[in-house]
Amino acid sequence: MRSLIGLLSGLLFGAGLAISGMIQPAKVLGFLDIAGAWDPSLALVMAGALAVTFAGYRLALGRPQPLYDSRFHLPTASRVDARLLAGAALFGLGWGLGGYCPGPALAAAGGLSQGTLVFLAGLVAGTVAARFVPTLPGRGALPRPAR
Predict the structure, then answer these.
(1) Which of 58, 63, 69 is nearest to 3 (CA)?
(2) CA distance 49 to 55
(3) First vs last C-alpha separation in the chain
């Protein structure tokens, strides 16, 4: 049942990306082109996603446990280090150059576009390569901002 819910959630997410046009790299690149023909529609999609996520987390975390698991699996890492910053920079660079981030690229893969497939190959190569980047405890960490 857990796998079925995961599959249905992924299909719903992919359908939302397709309906909103976020699987079109030109849409993303238009959002990033603030000095030219700026397209604010991605900001509206992001705002909608944040609202749904906020409400969903509030509802889900109000429960003692998930419906189909024994506990919630939430991120525990809180350190900002050089590895995180380098990964974020590479992600942003790939997003700006290719017009895709991983979710929309996977949703667009069914179209078998050469650009999408090249992006996905780079995504897989980067994911594999990241496993070989050493984590140096206590090095390169930036202090967390005060709350």
Answers:
(1) 69
(2) 10
(3) 40
CA dist 121 and 115 (Å) reads 10
Per-residue pLDDT of the chain (147 residues; tens, 9 = 90+): 878 988 898 888 888 888 888 788 888 788 888 888 888 888 888 898 899 999 998 998 889 988 888 888 888 888 888 778 888 888 888 777 777 777 778 787 777 878 778 888 887 887 787 777 666 555 444 455 555
**Helices and strands of the chain, counted as H and E runs:** 6, 0
How distant, in Å, are the alpha carbons of 33, 42, 52, 74, 119 from that of 94? Answer: 15, 17, 26, 26, 8
Percentage helix, strand, coil for the chain under 3-state DSSP, each rounded to 5:
65, 0, 35
Q: What is the DSSP letter of 40?
A: T
Q: Which residue has the tokens 């959002």?
A: 31
Residue bearing tokens 């030219």: 36
Determine the Cα–Cα distance for residues 97 and 100; give it in Å rounded to an integer: 8
Structural tokens at position 17: 């990306």
